[in-house]
Amino acid sequence: MAGKKKILIVDDHPLFREGLKFLIARYPRFEIVGEAGNGREGLRMSQKLKPDLILMDLSLPDKSGIDITRDILSHLPQTRVIILSMHSKIDHVTESFGAGASGYIVKESAAEKLIQGLEAVSRGEFYLDSSLSSKVVKRLAELPEKTAQIKDIGYESLTPREQQVMRLLAEGISIKEIAERLFISPKTVENHRTNIMSKLEIHSAMELIRYAARLGLIDVDLWKG
Fold it and tell me: What is the CATH class of 5-132?
C-alpha cells in the first residue's frame, strides 16, 4: 500500500507492545515492522529496518529512551520518534523534545491519543499529549530562545548530556537525584561531573555555580543568602 508508514516499537513490556499493535492494526496506513524490548535492540533494529516512525518507551531497562532517541536520530535523522511514558513531568517532556523526539504521549492515555499522535507526526508536525499541563507547552516554547543566547567556548565543548548534568549540578541537585531524573547511574553522573570540571577547568562546586550564573543558566537569586 502506497504511503504506508513503517513503525518500530521499543518497549520492555510485552503486554503493552501487544496493546499498541492491536490499536495500530486497525489502521492500514501504518505497519508494524518490528519490536524491541530494550534500548540496544531498538538501536540495532532501527538501523536495520529504517522505520518511518518509532514508538519509544522513556524507561528502558538498559538505557533511557531519550538517549536511544538521540542515538537513533544521529544515524536516521528522517525518522520520527514519539516518546511513550508513565511520566508527565516537565523535565521529562522537555528533555525528550530536546533529544529530537517529535511527540510525547502519556501511557495511560495512549489508547485515545496514539493514532492522533502518529498521524500528526507523520505529517511532519509535533505532537504533545493534550492531557499534559499547559505549563509544559510554555516551558517548551521558552527553551530555544534561552539556548540560543548561550555563546561560550567552554560550554559548547560539553556534550548535550554534560550540559544537562552541569545545569542540574549548578542548581544544587544531588548526584542521586540527577541519576533518577536522567535514568542513569550515580556513577555515570559522577563521571560526567569529572569531565565537566576538566573541560571547563573548574575545581569546585561554587566555581561551577558562578560559571552557570554568568551564562544565565541558573537564577542567581536562588543562591543569595
Answer: alpha beta
Mean pLDDT of 158-180: 86
Mean of per-residue pLDDT scores for the chain? 83
Which ranges in the chain are annotated with CATH 3.40.50.2300?
5-132
Whether pLDDT at 97 is above 70: yes
User: At 37, which amino acid appears?
Assistant: G
CATH 1.10.10.10 maps onto the chain at: 150-217
Q: How far apart are CA 132 and CA 175, in angstroms?
A: 28
**Cα dist from 87 to 58, 74, 96, 129, whole Å:** 8, 25, 12, 12
- For residue 205, the cross-strand partners are none
Q: Report the candidate in 197, 176, 196, 195 with the shortest Cα–Cα distance to residue 187.
A: 176
pLDDT digits (tens, 9 = 90+) for 10-65: 999 999 999 999 999 999 999 999 999 999 999 999 999 999 999 999 989 998 89
CA distances from 39 to 57, 66, 93, 131 (A): 9, 10, 19, 27
The CATH number of 150-217 is which of 3.40.50.300, 1.10.4100.10, 3.40.50.2020, 1.10.10.10? 1.10.10.10
pLDDT surpasses 80 at 3: no
Specify the pLDDT at position 144: 45
pLDDT tens digits, residue range 123-158?
A: 888 888 766 645 555 555 454 444 444 567 888 888
